[in-house]
Design a protein that fits this description.
The protein contains four helices and eight strands, in the order E-E-E-E-E-E-E-E-H-H-H-H. It has 141 residues and is of the alpha+beta class. The protein has one domain. The protein is globular.
Length: 141
């Protein structure tokens, strides 16, 4: 039986926590999602730059403006302990004190990739628009 996915709110926008796909996907907009593998794993949380206008991740280097903020996202073991426990055959109690890397380490490391070639990174604005347009069309980078 499918269960209702937990929700994590980012700057007023709801994102569903999908442990199976290891991403946050915007409620009502399946073309907008953030993969945990693309975020910076700090052990106790993830960090990423978020654009409040487009409700998407900011990638690349370059100038930032006041609409681009650094956000902290709890680990999947905190956002959806039931989902993590079910996926990996553990109990919720067995997750206590563990990080995502403790539970999913080998699986996460096998999917590390850089989705956009460096020569394609002309500037942040064009890269951001490319990602936003692609994700809106359902393209996975």
């Amino acid at each position: 039986m499918k269960r209702e996915l937990p929700v994590f709110n980012i700057e007023g926008t709801d994102f569903l926590v999908d442990v199976d796909k290891r991403w946050l996907i915007q409620a009502g907009n399946p073309g907008n999602f953030f993969e945990f593998i693309d975020m910076e794993d700090k052990g106790t949380h993830y960090e990423m730059f978020y654009d409040k206008r487009y409700k998407c991740e900011v990638v690349g280097v370059g100038p930032r403006d006041d609409q681009m903020i650094d956000i902290k996202i709890p680990p999947m073991v905190v956002l959806d302990p039931v989902g993590v426990a079910e996926k990996y055959g553990l109990t919720v109690e067995g997750l206590k004190g563990k990080t995502d890397m403790d539970i999913m380490g080998a699986e996460i490391q096998s999917t590390i990739r850089w989705p956009i070639q460096k020569e394609e990174q002309k500037d942040d604005k064009s890269l951001l628009l490319k990602l936003h347009e692609g994700r809106s069309k359902g393209i996975k980078f």
